[in-house]
Design brief:
The protein is α/β, with parallel strands linked by helices and about 325 residues long. It is built from 11 helices and 13 strands. β9, α5 (about 145-155) and β10 (about 160-165) form a beta-alpha-beta unit. α2 crosses α3, α4 packs across α5 and α8 (about 245-265) packs antiparallel against α11. It is globular and about 50 Å long. It starts with a strand and ends in a 5-residue tail after the last helix.
Length: about 325
């Protein structure tokens, strides 16, 4: 599989990476550990060597499954995880509470970042993390303090690259005053292009890689989410705008227009959607979630081919016709 250099670092990432949130189970209606391990090992086999996880995915569970999957194969993978979101905190107010009552707290203080790094290394059963990302901004902690911790981890060899996730241009600027930031991880797909006006141009200009998450919009762009689909309690998609029936109908009509383009390449809609993302200038990798080895194989089919300029222009017209989801 094609690889691309991450920012100004020496790290090369596969253009399609495996997003490991769903494998952790939390907010995705549970998980099957055995299938998760098999999915990750299949990803490595097919060249999808970038594995992206986080402590908050399943409250440590996703990292533990990743640790099992890469045992004996650590040198074959580029491991990305995160810090800054915790499921317990002695002093801070939660920034998010899910419908099951699970609380999520933000903390990017030096003490917390250093502690989290050690816990991730333990769960992942590794001596180093390739890409260490601040999961979300922490408005209560100065950028200088967070970067002090990250620079220390870099010097100690415990991480190979400092990165961020869900950061604005201003927030990236603040961090870059105190050290190198090699990548940002924003949401990006045909239906969500909010990074295009500012974040994408800024990252291109400053040689900051982009690891795009949700390239298939949490499954909608596969065409497999039908109007009769019901999402169980605990699955966060049941509240998302594109998953509401009135918007889902519009999205499915949009996908009908894309089917002939996908068919010309012998590809699925999911493969087309992920390929669209990696065709955009400045994208290092599209992180596609999967829970089974079969899904991984399909995701890998999004790499090593390219939509033409004419096709990209045609898709652009279809996207403009579709417009945003209705509230």
């Amino acid at each position: 599989m094609e690889k691309r250099k991450l920012g100004s670092s020496e790290i090369e990432v596969s253009v399609i990476g495996l997003g490991c949130w769903a494998i952790g189970g939390w907010m995705w209606g549970g998980t099957d550990d055995e299938k998760g391990v098999a999915a990750m090992r299949k990803a490595i086999d097919v060249g999808m060597v970038l594995l992206d996880t986080a402590p908050i995915y399943g409250f440590g569970h996703s990292e533990e499954i990743v640790g099992k999957a890469i045992e004996g194969r650590r040198n074959e993978v580029i491991l990305a995880t995160k810090c800054g979101l915790l499921w317990q905190h002695p002093t801070r107010e939660p920034r998010f509470v899910d419908e099951e009552g699970n609380k999520v707290y933000g903390d990017l203080t030096k003490e917390s970042v250093l502690r989290e790094a050690e816990e991730s290394l333990r769960r992942l059963k590794t001596d180093w993390i390739d890409i260490y990302q601040c999961h979300r901004p922490d408005e209560l902690t100065p950028a200088e303090e967070t970067m002090e911790a990250l620079n220390l981890l870099l010097e100690q060899g415990k991480i190979r690259a400092i990165a961020v996730s869900n950061f604005s241009v201003e927030q990236m600027e603040a961090f870059r005053r105190y050290g190198p930031v090699q990548s940002d991880q924003p949401r990006y797909n045909m239906l969500d292009r909010t990074i295009e006006p500012e974040i994408l141009p800024y990252c291109r200009k400053n040689d900051i890689g982009i690891l795009a998450y949700s390239p298939i919009e949490q499954g909608i762009l596969t065409g497999k989410v039908t109007l009769d689909r019901e999402f169980p309690f605990g699955d966060h998609r049941r509240h998302k705008p594109w998953f509401q029936k009135k918007n889902l109908k519009r999205a499915l009509d949009f996908l009908e227009k894309l089917k002939p383009i996908a068919a010309d390449y012998g590809k699925s809609l999911a493969q087309l959607a992920a390929n669209w993302v990696i065709c955009q200038e400045g994208i290092s990798s599209a992180l596609v979630g999967a829970r089974t080895a079969e899904q991984v194989v399909e995701n890998a089919g999004a790499a090593d081919w390219r939509l033409t300029e004419e096709e990209l222009k045609q898709i652009e017209e279809y996207v403009e016709e579709l417009g945003p989801p209705e509230e």
